[in-house]
Amino acid sequence: MVHERRKNVKPEHLLHLALVIALAFIVPACASQQKTGQHLFILSGQSNMTGTLKAAFTDRVEERFGEDNAVVVMRQKSGRGIRFWVGDYRQPSDRNLSDKKIITDESGLITVPAAACSKPNSSTERITFMQSWGGGTQIHYQRLGSRPEIIRYTIEVPAAGKYQLTTTVATVSDKQSVIVRLNRRTLLNVMLPYTKGMWEQSKPETIELREGRNSIMLTFRAPNRGVSIKGFQLKPVK
């Protein structure tokens, strides 16, 4: 019934709701009178967002708009991306997530987009394909999940020899690493830079590849704090 009283509604919740409604009317009125040009930024995302990330973002917007004209607040929830706050979320059907072309230039440099993996082909419990700021596609490896998952790449190498492996990643905490397995034999533990949410390349790791088809698999030890991958490069060592 419409007038049935809900016993689980606490008085303090009603007070908070009343304050929010009041502010919704007061703030626009004040802004229209004073025209201060102030800006409010709300950072919403995973529970592994750090205070350092907020500080770095705050520095940038204050530099752009002025210290007195920018307010930054941060809201964290669960351990998954903000899109998963909606239980039945699905990627929009019109999104082009087909950034899968591996490019080898004249010098032998091989550029591998993150989405060029042969497995998985779509998002899973821990691995999410998504559009990336600046274009292309990125993969995000979630920090939650029942078990580790593998990202597998099959790469055609023009000549056998040593190559420098660098990975373009975005991290929100330090002391993270990716486990790289080459052709089911060689294992590497590659340390990742602490990028504060920005794209950066890892330090080069020298590996050996054979001519023709090579398998490269990536995974992360548990626990991890979540990592986004833009892609990686293989540069011939001369």
The name CATH uses for the topology of the largest domain is: Jelly Rolls
Could you tell me the number of beta strands?
Answer: 14
Derived from helix and strand composition plus strand pairing, the structural class reads alpha+beta
Give me the Rg, rounded: 23 Å
pLDDT below 50 for ≥5 consecutive residues: which ranges? 1-9, 17-35
Cα(first) to Cα(last) distance is 78 Å
Count of structural domains: 2
Strand composition percent: 35-45%
What's the order of the H and E elements? HEHEEEEEEEEEEEEE
Q: Rough shape?
A: elongated
Mean pLDDT: 77
Number of helices: 2
CATH class of the largest domain: Mainly Beta
Q: How much helical structure, as a percent, in the residues? A: 10-25%
CATH architecture of the largest domain: Sandwich
Q: Superfamily at the CATH H level of the largest domain?
A: Galactose-binding domain-like
Question: What's the story with the biggest beta sheet?
Answer: 8 strands, antiparallel
